[in-house]
Amino acid sequence: MSEGLVKSAARVMAIFECFEDVKRPLTISELVRLMGVPQSSMSALMKSLLAQGFVDYDTRSRAYTPSVRVGLLGNWLMGGPQNQDNLLTMLQDLNATTGDTVILGVLNGVEAQYIHVVNSYQRLRFQLRPGMLRPMFRTAIGLVLASQRDDAEIGRMIRRVNTETERPEDAIQEVEVMARIQEVRESGYIITANLATPGAGVVATLLKNGPSSRPLAIGIGAPHPRIVSGKEFLVEALTLAVNKFASGRSSAQAA
Asked: How many CB atoms lie within 10 A of CB 43?
């Protein structure tokens, strides 16, 4: 596959992430400004997406929106539209309750990937975007998900990460990681600070009875001082949200 095709694919996904971020129709000029892509390239991409039915176009406002077709593409991965709606509602409610950034993540190889983000509305906030990758052993989401693997596999993953590390001082310390993993297994959650992002902290836990076949983790991210001062509140809010979601899923499955 040529580099040009790879670049086009990346741009298409970034376009849909722009729509997810702003949650409104966007014109070509707005997409160009948000993404820093040449207008000619953006126009060609949107014309192609329109022809395939992946976006809708309003001739009056000259703005595009993702089509219903796009919204339905991933329903099967999340167990259907009802499960997807319930999960997104839970993430939005948790954001409204805490005022902080809420993260949904999975493991992607030896990295944690944020697949959905509801950013904080506070002035001082922890700002993220969907699709971001973080080293799995240097993020709360990654440590929670790693806790679901057995110790031997975790050890192999640590060694794999370390063989790809350029500077010896950046190597993962297996003893330290296993201690954090055990912390997650015992308490059901983890609180981290200054791992992937200096000055930021995250409280994270496993999404029990999730709608995907892949384990999912949920985290609340904020400036570290806010995590420290609100630790009990954030842990309680996260635990209640996850337990309520799992209970609702169990009831629906039993019906």
From this structure: 14
